[in-house]
Amino acid sequence: MRMPLYRCNYAVVFGLMLLQCGCTSSRPMAANRFEIAGDVQQPKRWSAAEFRAAFESDLQEATATSKGREIHFRGVPLLKVIERAEPKANLDRKNAALALAVVVEARDRYAAAFSLCELRDEYGHAPAFVAVEIDRRPLEADRGPVELIVPNDRKSSRWVHSVARIHVVDLTREN
Predict the structure, then answer these.
(1) Distance CA 148, CA 77 (A)
(2) Are 71 and 65 in contact (CB under 8 A)?
(3) What is the pTM of this model?
(4) Are 128 and 114 spatial neighbours (Cβ–Cβ below 8 Å)?
(5) What is the per-residue pLDDT across 12-49, written as a single tens digit (0 to 9) for each?
(6) Long-range interactions of 79-82: CB distance < 8 A, separation 24+
(7) Where are the beta strands (DSSP E) in 53-99?
(8) Measured between alpha carbons, how far is 103 from 159 in angstroms, rounded to an integer?
(9) Fold category of 5-170 in CATH
(10) What does the alpha-carbon distance between residue 28 and residue 83 come to, in Å, rounded to a whole number?
């Protein structure tokens, strides 16, 4: 008996998505650079300085708690970064954005996955930030070039240090 998609285990769906999007590639990325790629019209690679300059007007200051410690950070909303890359979506489908997923992968292959809509105010309103500094200091080399921070998560499991890749995936595309 087939289980309807809406009742399936989302961890399995995201695992399959990781395989589909190529986030498990062994393509090396320089430690001081990261990229946005996948189903986007404007893929891009940045150093921390290039990223900061490109998004200077979008930088926000915020606080978050990790392991009982409050941190202050400056970062760009992940949604702004994705929108600037212009995701490719099958616009013939109703609510096409609902089928877009985002995987943020670290240099050590740690990854966190999001539905694009969960980042939007009208759906999930789960802000995530691409941080360029923590506690008023640039990220240390072993945590940079940027770090993903999800301040509203109760656990910091979706925080990604040493971001190497932000990968956008249209889950409805044909392989």
Answers:
(1) 9
(2) yes
(3) 0.81
(4) yes
(5) 344 444 444 454 444 555 678 999 999 999 999 999 99
(6) 79/116, 79/119, 79/120, 79/127, 79/128, 80/55, 81/36, 81/55, 81/130, 81/166, 82/36, 82/40, 82/116, 82/119, 82/166, 82/168
(7) 60-66, 69-77
(8) 12
(9) Sulfite Oxidase; Chain A, domain 2 (3.90.420)
(10) 25
Residue with tokens 């539905």: 115
Task: At 89, give phi and psi (nearest 5°).
Answer: -130, 150
Q: Give the separation between CA 107 and CA 35, rounded to whole angstroms.
A: 11
CB 171 within 8 Å of CB 17: yes
Which tens digit of pLDDT belongs to each residue from 89-137? 776 777 777 889 999 999 999 999 999 888 988 887 789 999 999 999 9
Residue 82 CA to residue 166 CA, distance in Å, equals 8
DSSP letter, residue 87: B
State yes or no: cis peptide before 145, omega within 30 of 0. yes
Q: Measuring CA to CA, which residue among 167, 165, 132 is closest to residue 31?
A: 165
